[in-house]
Amino acid sequence: MTIADCFDHFLFDLDGCLYLRDQVIPAAPPTLIELRRRGKKVLFVTNDPRSLRNVYAEKLCRMGIEARTDEVLSCGWATAQYLQKHHTLGHSTAFVVGSQGLKDEMCSVGLRVVDGRDALHADFVVVGGHGDFNYAEMMLASFAVQNGAHFYTTNRDATFPTPEGLVPATGAVLAGIEVASAQTAISVGKPEPGMIEVARSLLGPGKMIMVGDRLDSDIAGGKRAGIATALVLTGVTTPDEAERSKWRPDFVLEDVGALLIK
Predict the structure, then answer these.
(1) With contact defined as beta carbons under 8 Å apart, do 262 and 2 qualify?
(2) Where would you tag: which of 22, 60, 154, 171 has the fewest CB atoms within 10 A of its CB?
(3) Mean pLDDT of the chain
(4) What residues contact residue 158 under an 8 Å CB cut-off, 6+ apart?
């Protein structure tokens, strides 16, 4: 019996699990094809807040991995849904430290994205890592939070893996804003259990496993939500780190292809 035989639903992280930046992990396409052939349900769950869900689906398809937009659960989309559920947004404004994709997600739930002096009194500050982050953004976000803005972040991942090594991610950007404002943001993405709850609502009943490369988000998120976890060693985590972590995965795999090995 394989690991895949034991589960109905598979939640896959993206960066470090199925690809590294723009390089597909070789085992990923055939593994996903076989899981679908066996009737398994798949959801792609990412803490990368930079793009809209359809962009991730299109990227996966280019890499030979079948994916629909409604099979992608991104932390940017989840954050927008969370704000809509927990706040009366009305004509509220948001200063977004993030990509155009993240700004579009906020606009999709009725928030008006502001910048410059208008950002100083924004109703919300939403943080997501992006390559153009600068000191001015940190300053505006800090002022807005000090002036009473609701403070959210898409996730707290400090880095993400690339073929060249680990590069700063949302958590690194967020740290400066939290220190400067002396406030702590509410995080929506993994490892917060809410992400897994959204996944359950999208997939329906069945036995679920979270597959990812990060102990502090993928494995912790699965454990906190009470589902099985599989750590793949194609991203940021080494076997030694997995052995020492308080978040112990149920399975440690060389790559996602090991889900199908007896």
Answers:
(1) yes
(2) 22
(3) 95
(4) 168, 169, 171, 172, 175
Count of H-run helices and E-run strands, the chain = 9, 15
SS3 (DSSP) at 214: coil
Among 187, 216, 246, where does a domain finish? Answer: 187
Please write the tens of the pLDDT for every residue from 62-75. Answer: 999 999 999 999 99
Spatial separation of the C-alpha atoms in residues 37 and 4, rounded to whole Å: 12
Residue 125 covered by a domain: yes
Domain coverage including residue 36: 3-47+190-260
Q: In what order do the strands lie in the sheet with 112-113?
A: 112-113, 93-97, 124-127, 150-153, 186-187
pLDDT recorded at residue 164: 85
Catalytic residue, candidates 5, 13, 118, 157 = 13
pLDDT in tens, 233-243: 999 899 999 99
Which helix or strand (DSSP H or E) is residue 165 part of? strand 165-168
Q: What is the DSSP string of 191-209?
A: TSHHHHHHHHHHH-SS-EE
Is 13 marked active-site? yes
Which one is catalytic: 5, 8, 15, 240? 15
Residues 101 and 147 in one domain: yes
In a domain, 225, yes or no: yes
